[in-house]
Amino acid sequence: MEALKLKTVADLITSPEERVELIDGEIVRRPMARIDHGTAQTHTAIELGALTRRGGPGGWWIATEVSVAYEAHQCPSHDLAGWRKERLPERPSGIMELPPDWVCEIVSPGHERKDTLTLLLLLQHHRVPFYWLLWPEDRTLVAYALEAGQYRICATISEPTRVRVPPFDEIELDLGYILGE
């Protein structure tokens, strides 16, 4: 019996498949996006747009569908990810190798384990300070903050309200808009 060969970022780059990512050394297909997923992703990016503009409360690079190579066998493609410009002064390009300061995953039915366990542990290990999970079907945002090397929930919001959620306390987000209310 042959040992399982873990795939690397190089294998991911040369993969003929589309909408794939590298998780635990395996190239896996990303879930098919549903309208609720796409709406939440687009609206979150719009709501956070002021943070990326000159003259705004800014200081962030925020991108959708960005691949981050955390390790040789770990390169997920995040729904949204952000880097503080003080850590990354120049506009990034290509596959990112610097862990983000914030990641947001929009949880897809049937793929909850990846977002709630696999990625949570990976991001915690790489000390990503903030991790958000958006549940469009449940109309909920769960936000985690890294404290002493462990994630703790810093906000759980299930109402279509305007909120300030770390790390974006300086702006008010319309959660109803983000979740398509």
From TrEMBL:
| Domain named Putative restriction endonuclease: residues | 14-175
Cross-referenced Pfam families: Uma2
Cross-referenced InterPro entries, in alphabetical order? Answer: Nuclease_put_TT1808 (IPR012296), Restrct_endonuc-II-like (IPR011335), Uma2 (IPR008538)
Question: What CDD domains would the database entry show?
Answer: DUF820-like (cd06260)
SUPFAM superfamilies registered for this protein in UniProt: Restriction endonuclease-like
Would you tell me the protein name for this molecule? Putative restriction endonuclease domain-containing protein
Q: Which organism is it from?
A: Thiocapsa marina 5811
